[in-house]
Write a structure and sequence with these properties.
Layout (H helix, E strand, L loop, with lengths): L13 H13 L6 H14 L5 E4 L2 H11 L7 E5 L5 H8 L3 E5 L10 H7 L4 E4 L11 H11 L2 E5 L7 E2 L2 E2 L6 E5 L12 E5 L2 H11 L20 H31 L12 E2 L5 E4 L3 H16 L27 H9 E4 L7 H17 L2
Parallel strand pairs: 2-3, 2-4, 4-5, 5-8
Antiparallel strand pairs: 1-9, 6-7, 6-10, 8-9, 11-12
Length: 368
């Protein structure tokens, strides 16, 4: 029987298991020395030394980062609608209003011109998402921030080790969040890491994640329990040593797909960007019904998994639509009907890649 090729596959090996056992034997399981070491190592390897603060999820990282940056009721933060709901949710959770803007149809990242048109006197920030592992246009957002005085917050959930003009993502905004969910390019089992531009934001994040206190029982603000455990940090530390090699394998897999896929729009990489291919996302013509046919045929006829990220734009979700009004975002809505993300993870074999290409070319051609 042909083995199924999953769209994503977390890599957990003996090194990660040994790290967990080490923490379990130590008796120090909650936030402790492993978390502190993970924060320092992540900063050194991925954020050019910017202070990093670990939390229990990527969503917590966005939420607490916004609070630490002073976002709250009455404010607006401009976000893409073509992203996972956590981006808009995090703004709404602060009491501020998420304002949705359209995307660049080539990179799928937030369109600076659409953002510029959405700025009002209440706008306090913009949160570009480095979607699929491709950096947003940080030159344009830096210029917009200088022109309007708004802040930049980065959603780098999918973009570990991606760069813009050679600088790592996570070093452009007041803060940046990296997700450590199991299907991301590296994982801690569950968790998030926040890169901070200032000591003030870092300290506020540490307070907010730990019930509002740095010293036990000396609560300074009303906070949350959003701590990362030493168990999760130990996993993350091991994965951090491996993510560079995994990223190179993702790029090699993407290059193979670029060369051999036909009849569809494959990912385009901006000349200033380094793409880390959290997802390898193609477009297919014919709308959502044709896209869904291709997804089903790949699974059923070729045993190839895929994903649709994201079939419902955030401004059309029941949870976030009240913030959007009668908003039309044409490129967002077109992408939501056309995109398919193919397997690109580092566990793929040469045979897997050949089967993916054969299957995708066949099912796309069958609908032409």
């Amino acid at each position: 029987m042909t083995a199924f090729i999953p769209a994503a596959k977390p890599i957990i090996g003996d090194d990660e298991r040994e790290a967990v056992d080490r923490v379990m034997r130590s008796g120090m399981i909650a936030q402790g020395p492993e978390v502190a070491a993970f924060e320092d190592e992540f900063a050194t390897r991925l954020t050019a030394g910017r202070t990093c603060v670990a939390v229990n999820s990527g969503t917590s990282g966005l939420h607490l980062g916004l609070l630490a940056a002073g976002i709250g009721p009455g404010d607006e933060v401009i976000v893409p609608s073509f992203t996972f709901a956590a981006t808009g949710n995090s703004v709404a959770l602060t009491g501020a209003t998420p304002v949705f803007a359209d995307i660049d149809p080539v990179t799928f990242c937030l369109d600076p011109e659409s953002v510029k048109a959405a700025v009002t006197e209440r706008t306090k920030g913009v949160m570009p998402v480095h979607l699929y592992g491709h950096p947003a246009d940080m030159d344009a957002f830096a210029a917009l921030a200088r022109e309007t005085g708004i802040a930049i917050f980065e959603d780098a959930a999918q973009a570990h080790a991606a760069t813009w003009r050679g600088a790592p993502v996570g070093t452009f905004g007041d803060f940046a969040m990296f997700s450590l969910y199991p299907t991301k390019n590296m994982t801690s089992g569950e968790g998030g890491m926040v890169s901070c531009a200032t000591d003030e934001i870092a300290r506020s994040l540490r307070l907010l994640r730990n019930q509002g206190m740095e010293r036990q029982y000396a609560n300074e603000v009303v906070g949350f329990n959003a701590r990362m455990t030493d168990i999760h940090a130990a996993i993350g530390r091991v994965q951090l040593r491996k993510v560079e090699g995994w990223t190179e394998q993702r790029r090699a897999n993407a290059a193979y797909l670029d060369e051999h896929l036909t009849g569809m729009q494959v990912p385009t990489v901006h000349e200033h960007a380094t793409h880390v291919y959290h997802q390898y996302t193609i477009r297919v013509a014919g709308g959502s019904s044709e896209r869904d046919r291709i997804v089903a045929a790949l699974r059923e006829e070729h045993q190839v998994g895929s994903g649709v990220y994201y079939p419902i734009p955030n401004h059309r979700l029941a949870s976030l639509a009240p913030h959007a009004g009668d908003l039309h975002l044409p490129e967002t809505e077109r992408a939501a009907a056309e995109v398919i993300s193919l397997p690109v993870h580092p566990s793929l074999t040469d045979g897997d890649l050949e089967r993916i290409v054969t299957g995708v070319n066949a099912v796309v051609r069958a609908g032409a």
